[in-house]
Write a structure and sequence with these properties.
42% of the residues lie in helices and 28% in strands. It has a 3-stranded antiparallel beta sheet. Strands 3-4 form a two-stranded antiparallel ribbon. It is extended and about 55 Å long.
Length: 104
Amino acid sequence: MRKADLVNTISEKTGVPKVDVLVTLESFFTEVKDTLASSENVYIRGFGSFVIKKRAKKIGRHIKKNEAIEIPEHFIPSFKPSKVFVEQVKENVNQLPDDKSNVV
């Protein structure tokens, strides 16, 4: 599902105009990004948490030059689904016929 599909689905289910749904979604995405950029986590009960994870420095390899390089410690955004979310997905995915599941 793409963002446009999500906007269409929400608009159809709620009766809210697509433009308003799009503006709301964009505002949500921007707020999550800004909050994570300011080193704060975002917790949404029943859905999940958007958190910042620290990656330790490590030695990597520059493939073209075949030499070792040091990758400094850095922070990355991450999403951790809530227990309710995980259980709901497990229940619904197990009910799908084999040809409909997208399990890799």
